[in-house]
């Protein structure tokens, strides 16, 4: 074969090989968009006297004197913390009458009241309807929470048997303007 033909074939092979291999530069970059959708988050916690989330509300020892005892909300009483990323309404209810005593007795639920500090005290009920404790409270700050005090009041009627009594208090939050919760 002649030298020129060999040189031509080799040149042609080099062109084909170089065309098939991608070019690499001294630097390279790639760009991608990252996206996330953040959903509404409604989260609250109740604390009593600086205790942990959902701590027991301990109203202490009260006489059966028919007088209303007041338990101011805040760091030394009841507080509701919001961790929500939307404005919320908070409702409350109780499971029923305080039950206990020796012999067995009750303190009716209408003797147990709540207020948010600016509202007139209202009796606990067994449903959330009409029991809006906090209205249109702002979303929580980033990486934090906001506390709201709730005042409690209890009257132990004259003649109530001595002993320990209890009921369960519920706080439930919904997005501001939504219907009152039905559970828990």
What would your notes on this structure say?
- Helix content is 10%, strand content 32%.
- It contains one helix and twelve strands; from the N terminus they run αββββββββββββ.
- The chain has 184 residues and is mainly β.
- It has one helix spanning 3-20, and strands at 44-48, 68-71, 78-82, 88-94, 98-100, 105-107, 112-115, 122-123, 132-137, 146-155, 165-166, 169-175.
- The strands form three sheets. Strands 1, 2, 3, 7, 8 and 10 form a six-stranded antiparallel β-sheet that branches.
- The protein has a domain at 48-175: Immunoglobulin-like (Sandwich), CATH 2.60.40.
- The model has no long low-confidence stretch (mean pLDDT 91).
Please tell me how large the radius of gyration is. Answer: 34 Å
- Mind telling me the CATH class of one domain? Mainly Beta
> Could you give a short account of the major beta sheet?
6 strands, antiparallel
Low-confidence stretches: none
Overall mean pLDDT score? 91
Shape field:
rod-shaped
Strands, total number: 12
Structural class of the helix and strand makeup?
mainly beta
What is this structure's SSE topology?
Elements: H1 3-20, E1 44-48, E2 68-71, E3 78-82, E4 88-94, E5 98-100, E6 105-107, E7 112-115, E8 122-123, E9 132-137, E10 146-155, E11 165-166, E12 169-175
Antiparallel strand pairs: 1-3, 2-10, 3-10, 4-9, 4-12, 5-6, 5-11, 7-8, 7-10
């Amino acid at each position: 074969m002649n030298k020129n033909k060999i040189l031509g074939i080799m040149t042609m092979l080099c062109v084909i090989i170089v065309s098939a291999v991608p070019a690499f530069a001294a630097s390279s970059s790639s760009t991608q968009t990252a996206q996330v959708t953040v959903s509404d988050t409604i989260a609250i916690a109740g604390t009593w006297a600086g205790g942990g989330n959902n701590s027991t509300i301990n109203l202490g020892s009260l006489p059966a004197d028919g007088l209303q005892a007041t338990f101011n909300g805040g760091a030394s009483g009841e507080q509701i913390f919001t961790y929500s990323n939307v404005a919320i309404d908070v409702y409350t209810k109780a499971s029923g009458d305080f039950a206990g005593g020796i012999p067995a007795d009750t303190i009716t639920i209408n003797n147990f009241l709540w207020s948010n500090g600016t509202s007139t005290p209202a009796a606990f009920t067994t449903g959330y309807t009409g029991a809006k404790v906090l209205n249109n409270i702002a979303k929580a700050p980033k990486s934090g929470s906001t506390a709201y005090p709730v005042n409690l009041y209890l009257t132990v009627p004259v003649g109530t048997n001595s002993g320990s009594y209890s009921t369960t208090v519920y706080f439930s939050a919904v997005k501001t303007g939504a219907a009152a919760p039905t559970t828990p």
